[in-house]
Amino acid sequence: MANRDSNSISAFTIDPSTGALTPVSGSPFPTEAGPVWVTVHPTGKSLYAANVFSNNVTVYSITGTTGALTPVGAPVATGLAPISVAVTPSGKFAYIANHDSNDVSAYSIDTTTGALTPVAGSPFPAGTTPESVVVDVSGKFAYVVNLATNDVSVYAIDLSTGSQTPGATVRTRGGSLSIAMGNGSAPVSYTPKFAYVANLTSNNVSAYTIDAISGDLTAVVGSPFSAGPGPFGVVVDSSGKFAYVANQNANNISAYSINLTTGALTSVLGSPFAAGSQPARPAVDPSGRFLYVPNYASNSVSAYAVDATTGALTPISGSPYPAANEPVSVAVDPSGRFAYVANQGGAAFGVCDPSVSPCGLSAYTIDPVTGTLTQIAGSPFPAGPELSDLAVDSSGKFVYVANQTTNTTFEFAINAATGALTQTGATPLLPGAGVAVTVEPSGRFAYVTDGSNHNVAVYSIDPMTRALTQIAGSPFSTGLVPFSVTADLSGKFLYVASQGDGVSGYTIDPSTGVLTPLTASPFAAGTSPIAVATTGKIQ
Questions:
Q1: Which contiguous run of DSSP H or E holds residue 197?
Q2: How is 111-172 classified by DSSP, letter by letter?
């Protein structure tokens, strides 16, 4: 046990029957200034203590019979304010998160003595104020939680040298301090289950099961299910328990519970729930606690708390919140801290004049307790006229926006602290109209539908700059007037709702992003299918 204020380590024996603790003879054992973290080597023969005030780590040998600690050599230098220690399952390497120098120190471990030797290239950069470090059960990857940048740094570990190669970072909610890894031997798998399509003029929702191998869609028994007049957008919560449909011509939201076995929809008690005028493409936050709906004709965003048991909606205090002109689509970043709204209005012959009519991207912070929206300074952010859709990438660092008038996809970087947006690029489409955009789950490829030329353009995403480059063979044909696009949770399949031809399905090449039509595609839907969403199972 690390005793920070007394600069010592307490050691105990454990009664195998009762779990009672008895101090080891000689305990507590002295260490350097401010021990805050102790880790035992997998062999049980060594212990490592991170000393936050003396900027070093103390190495001890553990006496197997008594549990007593004996220092091994002098304390080993670390970065500034070492706060967490992790040892690989093999026992060959140790990693220390340094809170004040924003990096990770890496060491090889002497398998006989437990002594530490810095790895070549150490320390390795992390985010701002790293709080903890863990290594996965395979020993191939290390993860560091960064408090100030609200993200997790991911590193690949060289199994021979212990060197770390930085990978993608993942955004978290505010105040993240620690991370734990499961000890399962099987990798996480993502299995697609169901797909739902809003049919604009037949006023219903088509439901399908997804074949996890082929990606083919099969209509659920009872499909299609009734919606309100003019269903324009559909979204499913992260648990896959509830679906929500924005009825544009009825100014309300149809809410459904999803049968987790069959995919059938049942109206939630109290549904439909009132919204603003002409609700459009909604989004549920990653926690599944809040639903946000842009109201096209009332220039606002309705916010709701989601009942975790029933799926019923309760308006959040202060809702609806002001947006710019003609909000049409909303997206929430993966951390659930920020919401972004694409506003379609403000277009006059391809010109956006904010002094006449606010346009661009509205940006909000989300209160993690209440779901309340607060507009971010600088919002709305310019993005040209007639925005039609937007997507946040899986890292939570970038927003991609489809623009119908300029036939361009705009790229914005997200400020991790404030949520403010900075434009980083603009990628033109072939002559046409960019109607919808999505980023598949790995964050390597973006897909943009062209409503005029009836196709979907595919872009690779630069892993560092997140810039878009159209891939070879793009664009790929869809049905008539493709209006919505989504990739399933596994990243294996892409689905496009086309108003004239049902639902087109494709396999995604994981290396290139190339699309191959599914054998049975396109799949029949109702009249004017305009939005598609999928669910999946994580196990």
A1: strand 190-199
A2: TTT--EEEPTT-SEE-SSSEEEEEE-TTSSEEEEEETTTTEEEEEEE-TTT--EEEEEEEE-
CA distance 405 to 132: 47
User: Cα torsion for 346, 352, 358, 361, to the nearest 10°?
Assistant: 100
CB 328 within 8 A of CB 335: no
- Summarize the confidence of residues 96-104 as an average pLDDT: 95
Structure tokens given for 157 = 């570990």
Encode pLDDT of 126-176 as tens digits.
989 999 999 988 899 999 998 887 788 899 999 999 999 887 677 777 777
pLDDT at 351 over 60: no
Query: Is residue 210 exposed (0-12), middle (13-18) or buried (19+ Cβ within 10 Å)?
Result: buried
What length does the chain have?
Answer: 539
Exposed/middle/buried for residue 483 (C-beta within 10 Å: 0-12, 13-18, 19+)? buried
Q: State yes or no: pLDDT of 319 exceeds 90.
A: yes
In 337-481, DSSP assigns E strands to 338-343, 347-348, 351-352, 360-366, 373-375, 387-392, 398-403, 408-414, 421-428, 434-439, 445-450, 455-461, 468-470, 476-477
- Span 240-286, pLDDT tens digits: 999 999 999 999 999 999 999 999 999 999 999 999 999 999 999 98
Nearest 5°: phi and psi at 38? Answer: -125, 140
